[in-house]
Amino acid sequence: MKKIILSVLMLLSLSTFSQASSQPVMKITDINGVTHQITGTDQGLNIKGLEGKIVFIEFFGHRCPPCLASIPHLIDLQKKYKDKLAIISVEVQGLNNAQLKQFAKEKGMNYIVVSDEKAGNFTNYIGQRAQWRGSIPFMVALDRKGNVQFVQAGMLPEASLVELIRQLDAIK
């Protein structure tokens, strides 16, 4: 039953996300000063340097209890699947880059962390493409080809994220 529900959600999210057809080039700069180039595609995103990886893009807030609860899960997943998974977290509750860098250090975040101020128009682009209305945590999952396969508002338990990785890894 879980697989059926997950499959239906994946199909619905993919159809919603793929409605827009423009292909903008965006840049985000993480808390370590690394700039990541992202190109919108018909079916998802091309993130330079992360080609061939499953990518979780999470929008979170530093004052959001479910967001805070998901950080240890994301840390564990990044460690366990470091060769096949990349996680990008964009903080949208107003921490500036310096504050977010300190926050990420305190939490031990071992994945790409971006403040909204350094996300350029990426946050708005995701909002439009995925019809995101600002609820957090909010996740967009891409398969190895950069195609959106899953969109979720609300926290997912670690076991569900592991299952999602397994399913995305099986897509050829």
UniProtKB/TrEMBL annotation:
<dbReference type="GO" id="GO:0016491">
    <property type="term" value="F:oxidoreductase activity"/>
</dbReference>
<dbReference type="InterPro" id="IPR050553">
    <property type="entry name" value="Thioredoxin_ResA/DsbE_sf"/>
</dbReference>
<dbReference type="InterPro" id="IPR036249">
    <property type="entry name" value="Thioredoxin-like_sf"/>
</dbReference>
<dbReference type="InterPro" id="IPR013766">
    <property type="entry name" value="Thioredoxin_domain"/>
</dbReference>
<keyword id="KW-0732">Signal</keyword>
<feature type="domain" description="Thioredoxin">
    <location>
        <begin position="17"/>
        <end position="170"/>
    </location>
</feature>
<dbReference type="Pfam" id="PF08534">
    <property type="entry name" value="Redoxin"/>
</dbReference>
<feature type="signal peptide">
    <location>
        <begin position="1"/>
        <end position="20"/>
    </location>
</feature>
<protein>
    <submittedName>
        <fullName>Thioredoxin</fullName>
    </submittedName>
</protein>
<dbReference type="InterPro" id="IPR013740">
    <property type="entry name" value="Redoxin"/>
</dbReference>
